[in-house]
């Protein structure tokens, strides 16, 4: 290019004495007003300058003809083209891989919970001396939620009469009543470390926290802190510790709060439907589980603020979730009339509890102290107990003293010797275990530390984690173990 420009510059240039510039036969002379004549050669000096510039520009373009300024290889070092992506697997190969994965999972999960548990010997027979011993009366509206305190004797209930009532379940006395600004309450929770705080929420989209040690007289209705950020109703609240809570909402999100400042610490948005329930892991407070209308149960890590596991299998809304006592599994209750047990270590479902004669939804679930029994509150006014070591399609045990309307909430205290159920009939019932000191069916008591270490032993079989239940549940002393019998022909 430089040579062509140099050659163009060597050509003779016209002087003022030369003839005017001829545009050529293929180029029409430019139109415009005739410039005034010049005393030198009859042409205006400005017109000559313009034509001179046009001539130089035309010669330069002629010299650069064929040069593409937009070709980057003229200015930059040519790089090899990027490698092509690997070809996509044909549909047949994808289907084959899916089939292989499914076959492996089927081979691992073909065994039943009862078969895995029987490898350690025959299961103990479980009697059923449970009786409904207390009825807590005092609400004037539907009871929507209840939660036990850590002292195993105190509980709080929330009702649509616009009150939170703190009960002594042993004496049935009302310890305290907290009037609420909104009567449309849907959830309540007790702080577990000191038991001074209770939280609630509902259709007002606000999580209200009360200090029951400071509530007296006219200050009864004043919340110590109100947490406002959700765009939908508050469906569930649980304390992580004295200074933090986790809430779930109808806006498809869960929020981790600083209860002292009222600030949002982290927001979890992976659900695609209303989140109905949350629970905190008993083994690791950095983990919590949630159940949603999108039919999935998710495990979240508060440290990274993300979902770490998603469990599927339900066909309709999940209304309640509860952690297994060792923190390695999650139980769920759904409107599809099934309760399911998902294990976090195998990332799969290890048991499904359903009966064709029970065709109603489950509102709440809870486990006994050892996890041998899974309790569920149903829309048919009953609470049922399922043996987690038995096949899930066998008949459950209906707890005595059914309610007169749907069971809306259910919970077992930390000691495992009492269970409370709430109903839309404005009352709560507390069931206790009789004769704890006898009739244990040959139970072997093992120290808690040894049991925990055995459960954590990585050498235990982990085929869909069926073994983890059987080892712990058969050897751990649980007052609810005497609830069941192995005679599965009982009527429900």
What does the overall shape look like?
Answer: extended
- Measure the end-to-end span: 96 Å
| Helical segment count | 6
Largest sheet: 4 strands, antiparallel
> How do the strands line up in the largest sheet?
1-28-27-26
What class would the helix/strand composition place it in?
A: alpha+beta
Helical percentage: 10-25%
Structure description:
By secondary structure, this protein is of the alpha+beta class. It is 15% helix and 33% strand. The strands form 7 sheets. A 4-stranded antiparallel β-sheet has the order 1-28-27-26, with no helix packed on it.
Secondary structure topology:
Elements: H1 2-10, H2 45-63, H3 91-109, H4 113-118, E1 131-137, E2 143-148, E3 154-159, E4 163-168, E5 173-179, E6 185-190, E7 197-202, E8 206-211, E9 225-228, E10 234-241, E11 244-249, E12 254-258, E13 263-268, E14 275-280, E15 287-292, E16 297-301, E17 306-311, E18 318-323, E19 329-334, E20 339-343, E21 348-353, E22 362-367, E23 373-378, E24 383-387, E25 397-398, E26 407-412, E27 418-423, E28 427-432, H5 448-456, H6 466-475
Antiparallel strand pairs: 1-28, 2-3, 3-4, 4-5, 6-7, 7-8, 8-9, 10-11, 11-12, 12-13, 14-15, 15-16, 16-17, 18-19, 19-20, 20-21, 22-23, 23-24, 24-25, 26-27, 27-28
């Amino acid at each position: 290019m430089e040579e062509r420009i140099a050659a163009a510059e060597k050509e003779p240039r016209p002087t003022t004495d030369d003839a005017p510039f001829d545009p050529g036969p293929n180029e029409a002379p430019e139109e415009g007003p005739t410039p005034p004549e010049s005393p030198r050669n009859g042409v205006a000096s400005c017109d000559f300058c313009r034509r001179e510039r046009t001539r130089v520009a035309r010669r330069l373009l002629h010299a650069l003809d064929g040069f593409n300024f937009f070709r980057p290889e003229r200015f930059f070092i040519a790089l090899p083209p990027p490698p092509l992506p690997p070809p996509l697997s044909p549909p047949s190969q994808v289907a084959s891989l899916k089939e292989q994965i499914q076959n492996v999972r089927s081979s691992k999960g073909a065994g039943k919970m009862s078969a895995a548990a029987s490898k350690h010997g025959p299961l103990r027979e479980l009697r059923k001396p449970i009786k409904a011993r207390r009825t807590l009366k005092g609400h004037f509206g539907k009871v929507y939620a209840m939660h036990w305190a850590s002292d195993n004797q105190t509980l709080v209930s929330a009702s649509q009469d616009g009150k939170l009532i703190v009960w002594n379940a042993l004496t049935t006395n009302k310890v305290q009543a907290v009037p609420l600004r909104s009567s449309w309450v849907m959830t309540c929770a007790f702080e577990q470390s000191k038991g001074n705080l209770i939280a609630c929420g509902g259709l007002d989209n606000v999580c209200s926290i009360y200090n029951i040690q400071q509530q007296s007289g006219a200050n009864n209705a004043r919340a110590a802190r109100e947490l406002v950020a959700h765009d939908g109703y508050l469906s569930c609240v649980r304390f992580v510790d004295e200074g933090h809570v986790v809430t779930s909402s109808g806006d498809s999100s869960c929020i981790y709060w600083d209860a002292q400042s009222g600030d949002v610490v982290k927001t979890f948005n992976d659900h695609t439907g209303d989140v109905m329930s949350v629970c905190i892991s008993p083994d690791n407070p950095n983990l919590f589980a949630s159940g949603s209308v999108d039919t999935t149960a998710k495990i979240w890590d508060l440290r990274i603020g993300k979902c770490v596991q998603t469990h599927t299998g339900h066909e309709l809304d999940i209304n309640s979730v509860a952690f297994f006592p060792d923190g390695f599994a999650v139980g769920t209750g759904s409107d599809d009339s099934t309760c399911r047990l998902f294990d976090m270590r195998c990332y799969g479902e290890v048991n499904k509890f359903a009966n064709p004669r029970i065709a109603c939804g489950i509102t709440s679930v809870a486990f006994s102290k050892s996890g041998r029994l899974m309790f569920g509150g149903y829309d048919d006014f009953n609470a049922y107990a399922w043996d987690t070591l038995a096949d899930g399609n066998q008949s459950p045990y209906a707890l005595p003293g059914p309610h007169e309307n749907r069971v809306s909430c259910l919970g077992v205290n930390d000691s495992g010797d009492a269970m409370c159920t709430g109903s839309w009939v404005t009352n709560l019932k507390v069931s206790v275990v009789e004769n704890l000191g006898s009739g244990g069916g040959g139970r072997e008591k093992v120290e808690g530390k040894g049991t925990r270490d055995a459960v954590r032993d990585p050498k235990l079989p982990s085929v869909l984690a069926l073994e983890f239940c059987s080892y712990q549940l058969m050897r751990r002393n649980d007052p609810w173990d005497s609830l069941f019998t192995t005679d599965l022909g009982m009527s429900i």
